[in-house]
Amino acid sequence: MTHAAPDPRKTLDPDRVAEWLACHPDFFVGREGLLQQLKVPHPETRGATSLLERLVHDLRARAEQAEWRLEQLLESARFNEGQYRRTRALVLALLEAEDNDALGQALATQLSEHFHTPAVALWCPASLTDAEPHPPQAPRQVLDDHAGQRLAALLDGRPSRCTRLTPTDWKRLLPHVPAPAKAGSCAMARLTLGEPLGYLVLASPDPDHFRASMDTLFTDYVGEVVARLLVRMAPASS
Q1: Nearest-CA neighbor of 122 among 14, 226, 2?
Q2: pLDDT (0 to 100) of residue 8
Q3: Cα–Cα distance, 205 to 222 (Å, whole number)
Q4: InterPro entries from the entry (predicted)?
Q5: What is the tally of helices (H) and strands (E) in the chain?
Q6: For burial by CB atoms within 10 Å, which of 15, 74, 174, 211 has the most?
């Protein structure tokens, strides 16, 4: 009485087979016909496909993923280059300002045209404006106790912050720009360089333009540049 040969699919442990093949990657060398007979699940449709077709499909998917990642990197590089060029133009325009009023106007113009920031206020204490022959021109404002207390409250002990701006606060902190009917948003920074020099407020009627989750690296940088220029211009106005 003869016994049927055992079915290898039932006697061989799939995990051990996989482990053995991983240790013998050259097993299919000279056995290309066996590769063509292997069937694997199709990744997109029901049924099976040849191993070679599956490999082609996987390689194509990997190539598409790599192409997508490359495009993302290129897009990020283009954005960073554009941001650098806009920031460079902003700083150069600020350096060319001849006085504090020109500084504030250059700040407002550059931020509006290149950074989609329609409203700017530069609050400076009276000590920086008393010696000037004319009252400050917008977007510069003279910092009084009332405005200073509200700005400090909005910053909540932080050097800079992005937050919502109610119509009431907008009218108080950006009096030279019509207030939106509903809440807007702003990024603000305290200007200091050895001593308090005021506050910088960048605002938008869009409540989501400056979100609380956004970092303030750009606002901090602009504030540092403005603070140094205010100190540099102070002797000429005294």
Answers
A1: 226
A2: 56
A3: 21
A4: DUF484, GAF-like_dom_sf
A5: 8, 7
A6: 174
Please, is 163 exposed, middle or buried when counting C-beta atoms within 10 Å of its C-beta (0-12, 13-18, 19+)? middle
Query: Can you give the pLDDT at residue 108?
Result: 96
85 pLDDT tier (thresholds 50, 70, 90): very high
Token pair in block for residue 157 = 């002990």
DSSP state letter for 18: H
The whole-angstrom distance between residue 6's C-alpha and the CA centroid of its chain comes to 63
In terms of C-beta density within 10 A (0-12 exposed, 13-18 middle, 19 or more buried), how is residue 224 classed?
middle
Q: With the C-alpha atoms ordered 6, 8, 12, 14, is the resulting torsion angle positive or negative?
A: negative
Contact 106, 184 (CB under 8 A): no
Length of the chain: 238
- Whole-angstrom distance, CA of residue 179 vs CA of residue 30: 79
Average pLDDT, the chain: 87
Beta-strand relationship, 119-125 and 48-50: unpaired
Assign 118 a pLDDT band (cuts: 50, 70, 90): very high
Please check whether residue 214 is in contact with residue 162, taking contact to mean a CB–CB distance below 8 angstroms: yes
- Residue 144 CA to residue 123 CA, distance in Å, equals 9
Tell which residue, 102, 81, 220, 236, has the closest CA to residue 162: 220
CA dist 61 and 55 (Å) reads 10
Instruction: Provide φ and ψ at 194, rounded to 5°.
Output: 85, -30
